[in-house]
Amino acid sequence: MANLFDRLEQQIPIWRGQLQDLAKNHGDKVISEVTVAQAMGGARGVKSMVCDTSEVPPDKGLMIRGTPLGELTDHTVEDIFYLLIAGDLPDDEAREHLRAELAKRAVVPEYVWQVLKAMPDDSHPMCMLDTAVLSMQGESKFVEAYNAGVAKTEFWHSMLEDCLTLQARIATIAAAIYRMRFDKGPRIDPKPDLDYAQNFAHMLGLDQLGDEAADMVRLYLVLHCDHEGGNVSAHTCSLVGSALSDIFYSVSAGLNGLSGPLHGLANQECLKWVLHVRDQFGGVPSEEQLREYAWETLNSGRVIPGYGHAVLRVTDPRFDALRRFGMEHFSDDEIVQIVDRVFHVVPDVLKEHGKAKNPWPNVDAASGSLLYHYGMTEFPYYTVMFSVSRVMGMCAQSVWNRAMMAPIERPKSVTIKWLQDFVAKS
After folding, report:
1. Which of 195, 309, 333, 340 is flagged as catalytic?
2. Cα separation of 74 and 90, whole Å?
3. pTM for the model
4. Domain annotation covers residue 393
5. Known catalytic residue: 263?
6. Which of 72, 96, 195, 274 is the most exposed place for a label (fewest CB within 10 A)?
């Protein structure tokens, strides 16, 4: 199988042909209607974007390029990155080519470290990550190609160059931020002979815990790689990129969105609730104790973090994969035991409560517990871990958008007065 560049040379004409056919022969077909409530409520559920890298059917969960994520949990990060961009999984040769390409690009310029060192000691890890990404903008091959007058049909090539560089470096940067910000010791350089997940675990300092920790990092990165195009970080990255901003500007903007408490903070809130349960009962509660505590949480007007999802109507397959990993590798861990017990108790409570459209857990209900087990107890860093993975999706969507020559986004806004007049007329 071809490397990423060669594979896209083969695939892009096919994808462009499909889009051109749809626009030419079916462009007047209506795919969505917008209610007043949707216009006022963040455009939730309005079908108005194209994203081919992933989709989330409510009854199945995340699909990466048409493949259920549950079928991909044993694959490497390189496999998933290739799949997101090229549309199919690599063979051994293509995987090794991508691994070597990422390893070659993983060395971070000295000026990035100087920028991070100049930041206040109490800077939020996400602010540090975002700043580091933005600082590299001057190296963009996409900007260089644009300024040289390269045809827009070829923009994808330089965008892919930038994305490979960013994806390679972001793990190195993120690991260094963890060690710098939380006094974990000196920065650890990447090793060219390791794959992406092994290298990230190595640079975090987790390789001292053995292969199991690196496998957890691999699974975490695979599971958080993408989630359609309409979530805040993906949509922000796509929106900024639609103005032909390079990937450093675009991903920096996406990371700002991911930093928001309604997007990237969920796994922290879930783990806080689980830790509170442990402290409340001095360990793992019985099912009856947990049931009563869940009702107490709901009756006080609060929610049970991690349960319910805006799209899914089944248990998130990403949660299943993380819970299974924990129970297989360290089932004696109290936090993992509580996560498992909550899964067996809380959905029935939520069904009886009756207000939750989906009583099943999403990925955030389990992800923090695995990080916590391996000693990563610094909650502000969890969104950085999320970012290293989600940049894969943002990069893949950016390459796809440039390959398809996607136009600048410019939806029409209306005023409250316009809505009032519209409602009065109808």
Report:
1. 309
2. 14
3. 0.94
4. no
5. yes
6. 96
